[in-house]
Amino acid sequence: MLRAAALEAIYPELEPHVVVTIMGAVAAELYTLGHRPNFFYLEHAMGLASSMGLGIALSMPGQKVIVLDGDGSLLMNLGTLSTMARYRPGNLLHIVFDNESLLSVGGFPTATSTGTDLAGIARASGIPVVKEAHTPESLKSAVSEALADNTLTTVISKVEAVGPKTFHMDLPLLENRFQFKRALEAMRRASTERGR
Amino acid sequence: MPVSIANSRLIYDALKACDVKIISALPETWLVHLIRMAEEDPDMTLVRLAKEEEGIGISAGAHLAGVNSALLMQNHGFFAAINPIVSLALLYKIPLLMLISYRGHMGEKDPWQTQGGLMTEPLLRALNIPTWHLTNPADVQRRIKDAQTLAHASLHPVAVLLSRELMWED
Predict the structure, then answer these.
(1) Domains and CATH numbers, chain A
(2) B54 vs A77: CB contact, 8 Å cut-off?
(3) Any residues with CB less than 8 A from the CB of B75 and at least 6 apart, and which?
């Protein structure tokens, strides 16, 4: 499947929640579908989107946090799976788009193209629910279930190594950073008020 | 193991006085009591890491979510985290309160720590990270608070170097 189609299928699920994406194609495609102040695009620090998601999930237990990761990024920080599994915040959903390629830097094949199994690694790391979803429909239902279950879930989605024509986003990264922090503050305030 | 429990307690209490709610850590000898104190504190979330890089992401996430955090690491762990310090914390103006055990400095007996001891301050300077040395128990609370205050005002990482004099009782 195309990652853009996958993102389009799950966009309604992403929209109300805290979303952290990796750089490059994923960020640009999500941005093109419609930016929200609660979306953060980590434009560097490859591998750390999931660690940021974990930090947010532990800080805001009442808020769903969705990380959009990639095979190249996850392979750079496999330890994140063991750390997430250790603390297993139920409000964290980790989606990995596996295009078997470092697409954004020229398409070099990653180790998933030669047999490395990220779902297997996630399971063996102790992530409580690991799913594989290779169609937009199955991804959408995996995402809905994970959000309803309140159990830490990693979903691996094989996608084609095709990206957008341009990675340009009309959003300077510091603007994204400050806007995102304010959005999270507002979410925290709203959930405190709901709790009263 | 002659790691100072009293001074570890002073440091831990200083972090509590800074309203730190999340501590990420990778164990190292000098940090054992601090990590244990965090683990035994029901109001503290301790995140035991596989690698220090992750801690930069966790602290960045915590900051954006409005929660104060601190990182406990050895100086070699600081080296391991340099890329995300640059490409996340500095790039995105994220405050970090890094408590770094300063191995390989004066009095170090372990030969394998010595190269890292030589590189610690030059690398902190190269990254333009303001640094406090903690050697005197009387300074602990004030310096940790001041380090956090500067980190938040400047939206920039700060380092507190935990010295042998403070941490180790020979």
Answers:
(1) 3-195 (3.40.50.970)
(2) yes
(3) B100, B101, B102, B103, B104, B116, B117, B119, B120, B161
Q: Which fold has domain B5-167?
A: Rossmann fold (3.40.50)
B135 to chain A nearest CA, in Å?
31
Question: How far apart are the C-alpha atoms of A132 and A53, rounded to whole Å?
Answer: 20
Give residue limits of the domains in chain B.
5-167
Provide the mean pLDDT of chain B.
Answer: 97
Q: How many CB atoms lie within 10 A of CB A192?
A: 10
Which residue, among A18, A131, A150, A21, has the nearest Cα to A74 in the 3D structure? A21
pLDDT digits (tens, 9 = 90+) for B30-55: 999 999 999 999 999 999 999 999 99
Instruction: Give strand ranges (E) for A80-162.
Output: 92-98, 101-102, 108-109, 129-132, 153-158
| Whether the Cβ atoms of residue B116 and residue B78 lie closer than 8 Å to each other | no
- Which of B47, B51, B64 lies nearest to residue A180, judging by beta carbons? B64
Question: ipTM score here?
Answer: 0.97
